[in-house]
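I have been asked to look over a protein record a colleague put together. Thanks in advance; the entry in question is below.
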Amino acid sequence: ADNDTEFQIKRKHIKGVIADMFAAGTDTSSIAIEWGMSEVLRNPPVLKKLQEELERVVGMERMVQESDLPSLVYLQAVVKETLRLHPPGPLAIPHLSLEDCSVSGYEIPGGTCVLLNLWAIGRNPKSWEDAESFKPERFMEKTGAEEVDVNV
């Protein structure tokens, strides 16, 4: 093999990649939890409603279990509303357009790298009534049912 073209992976490179992967997997989750707690604490009626749901569904004698999640409708709405206002990554993963297309009147040539601004989408007053307010109920009203899809 030609030593000029060979790439030597050093221990520091492996450590760097592992650190990046760890941060990507934990930092986004902790940021979402911090924003969720912040919004709930800033909105006492939301906190009260969330406490009531947790007491009713889970009770005070045990921890929340995964099997409880389908019944924690308001908690799911709080999570969705938190992620709408405070996406852990304000820009979505870059996408590449495979062919020429038009999106909302914008012409996008094939081969273009496209970034979605999730922060702006979540706060767009054309899409969200009272876009800057933290209102978990908006995700419950959309369905007209007691269930909210947890797959965000």
In short: The first helix runs from residue 11 to 42. The chain has one domain: 11-141. The longest strand covers residues 101-103. Helices lie at 11-42, 44-57, 73-85, 118-122, 137-141.
